[in-house]
Design a protein that fits this description.
four-stranded mixed β-sheet; 139 residues; 2 helices; globular; 15% helix
Length: 139
């Protein structure tokens, strides 16, 4: 019997919300979904834990720093086909940040913008599902 192994990429995403009901999204600056809105996040580097990757990627893409212990794990998304580039597994985290938190687009983001949870744009990948899991009562 021949065994085959699938290449799996490991990522971490962050759902950052404010007490007044806004969420921080980035506008993607690269394919797939170039120009679309998404949760901040990215690849977990070798030897790195997903929580640390979430903190790092969030800061790189939005300019917002959050302490690792302020992140609450929401879940793991691993459905085949969730990313057109291949098999991606993400660990999603949620954080509540102050209402006056200023974000600025950084690495791999065209824009970083606060959106009202009740008036969201269409989201890339399965990020709408992740957002619903992180903030089920707000939208």
């Amino acid at each position: 019997m021949t065994e085959t192994f699938e290449t799996i990429r490991y990522t971490a995403d962050v759902v950052a919300t404010t007490p007044d009901g806004r969420v921080l999204l980035i506008q993607r600056d690269w394919p797939p979904y170039e120009g679309d809105w998404a949760l901040p996040g990215g690849h977990v580097e070798p030897g790195e834990e997903s929580r640390d990757a979430a903190v790092r990627e969030f800061a790189e893409e939005t300019g917002v720093r959050v302490a690792p212990d302020r992140l609450r794990q929401v879940g793991v998304w691993d459905r085949p086909g969730r990313d057109p580039r291949g098999r991606y597994v993400t660990v999603a985290y949620a954080a509540v940040v102050p209402e006056d938190t200023v974000a600025r687009a950084g690495d791999d983001a065209r824009a970083a913008t606060w959106w009202d949870l009740n008036t969201l744009p269409p989201l890339a990948f399965d990020h709408a599902e992740i957002l619903r899991a992180a903030v089920p009562s707000r939208h």
